[in-house]
Amino acid sequence: MLEFDGAILCKLDTDARGGAALSIAHATGRPIVLAGIGQGYDDLEIFNPQWLLNSILS
After folding, report:
1. Residue 2: inside a domain, yes or no?
2. DSSP character string of 13-55
3. What is the pLDDT of residues 10-57, one digit of tens each?
4. What angle (nearest 5°) sits at the alpha carbon of residue 48, between those of residues 43 and 54?
C-alpha cells in the first residue's frame, strides 16, 4: 500500500468551481499541495486554499 502526504491537482484551470479539489481533499483526507494551472511543469503553483474559497463563493 502506498501512502502520501498530499495531492497535486493538475488542470485546475479547467475546474471552474473547484469541485475536484474539494472531492480529492475529502476523499483522501490529505491536503492539496500543488495546483497545475496550465500545460507545462512551470505552471505548477503552491495551492492557495483562499483562492479556492473565493472561487466557490463568488
Report:
1. no
2. GG-SS-HHHHHHHHHHS--EEEEE-SSSGGGEEE--HHHHHHH
3. 877 666 666 778 888 899 999 999 988 888 888 899 988 888 788 778
4. 115
